[in-house]
Amino acid sequence: MKEHDKPLIQACVLTENREDALLYGAVLNVHRGKHNVGELATFLRYLQQNFGWNNKTIAEKLHLGESYVSQLLTISENGEIVEKLKKA
Predict the structure, then answer these.
(1) Rounded Cα gap, residues 51 and 29, in angstroms
(2) Would the pLDDT of 14 be above 70?
(3) What average pLDDT does range 63-70 have in this prediction?
(4) Does a structural domain hold residue 5?
(5) What is the reported pTM?
(6) Total domain count for the chain?
């Protein structure tokens, strides 16, 4: 930023744990529309497997509909479909 004569930059410093940092980034990306459905499905499966969260918890933490989370988790079970969605 100094090279561009910008003495200050806007930043958000998180002092929480890794889980909170992951969620913060995911929520921003989902609500900005900057996500790939295949990658999101994989991420939701990761949350379920590594944090033991159920569909309702994932939906609440990511501000998504529970039925949408359920659909994505079902999709995440089929690696072939997930890979096609990641390439789309």
Answers:
(1) 20
(2) no
(3) 95
(4) no
(5) 0.75
(6) 1
